[in-house]
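Example 3.2
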Amino acid sequence: MTTTEPATYSGWQSERSGFIGNLSGPGFALVAAACVFALIPLYIHSLSSALFALPVAAVLLLLAYGRVLGLTADQWIVLAVRHQFAVATSKNLFFSGVFAPRAKDGQQPMDLPGTLARLHLLEAPDGLGGQLGLMHNPVDNTYTAVCRLSHSGLALVDTERQNTRVGAWAAFLRSHCKEDGAITRIGVHQRSLPDDGAALRSWTERHISEDAPAPAVEALDQLMAGAGPAATIRETYLAVTLSAFRARLAIKGAGGGQRGAAAVLVRELNAMQPALSSAGLRVAEWLTPRGVAQTIRTAYDPEAHVMLAERNEVAATVAGWQGTSRGVAPELAGPAAAEAQWGVYRHDGAWTVSYQVRGFPQSPVYATFLQPLLRPRPNARRSMSITYEPVGPAKARKELAREKTKRDAARGLRAKTGRSESEDERREAMTARAQDMARAAGHGVLRLTALVAVTVLDLDELEIACADLQADASAAGLELRRVWGAQDDAFAASALPLGQGLPERRVGI
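Structure, written as tokens:
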């Protein structure tokens, strides 16, 4: 009798984005300037000039190679100058509500801060008689649909079924790694937030029988008082982004414009349903415009979650409901006020700190290795977003060949200069070769990024919640970096299920 062994996963490779080696463009410029200053005394044959040139060269080298919490000194200076300029011009502040802009027809459009201001929430038919909410980015010319998923998880299923589901999810991602595929981004977002039991108590009060025995009602009240506040709500969303440029021929065939793009995206969404089911993921609903607005609203204002949950429950269970429909009006999706500070983002009555996952585990891990990150906490809510970008076979072959060439050139340079190769560099070279071999064998290549956010309602509990998150990330084998100077942009990527956060092109990091 054979026992199925749980599959392990490894081989995450960071993108090489340095201009030369690990130096970015500004870093290389600083090193070049340092070399020039160091050579000036030799060129002009003046020892007195060395008293000025050599300290300047040392400062420039310190700016290029010095590290502060994972960032070089020159990057810290750029971030600080940009942040201080934003503070001086009040660009870090956002006010909506009574200050929200009005359209010419008197209607209030969706008003979001920062990089989200460019997005427009559209309404399109889902092909089944309902309506679908699409986030349109006119700058990138993309359309994003969001669905709410339900799943049984992996922790409590047997090993064989766990491997099957993870393999089906991998096959789903690999199916989109094709040349000029219409789907350019796939985002997975999960929230874990404490529940005070208000929604559960409200549901129980409406459904308890009038002739229920008094001892049973009393026992139920005691159970609700003890177990209700310990409950945790988990929400999982899937965001699918379509590129109108890549799908331009299909959009033209579907009628063109936004209507044609919506039709093509709906067709893609319907086609991926069987693959999601094979991975153990059930699409509870594709969000309507009011549903998308509610996910945005509850991220900016966590206190609104209980009220909206109770109202949605009443609207869904009461026959002939004539009150407010489920969800939130799109013009009320954004925060009433927000402030981007150096390391914290304040929005309505909450504070959020966002982190980027800068390093995945080097050793093989099981499929459940991210479980500690979403561990229930009584005083904080957590959000995690993973955004995938499928890469076509031709581009993947070109990118991996380029990375292999750069790594081989760096190894050759180290050998010529007499420097020994570290074990990390040797391991990275082996991983790059393994990736190229897997690509040649038919596997898909994806770019991905992961961001994590922790939100509290009491500022005094923020640092404790951050320490707990970093401890859980360490237990999962992840290396986190706080997103200094850009917490508003990081919040849009980590706390909202809109498929944000992955740059279009490689930049110096």
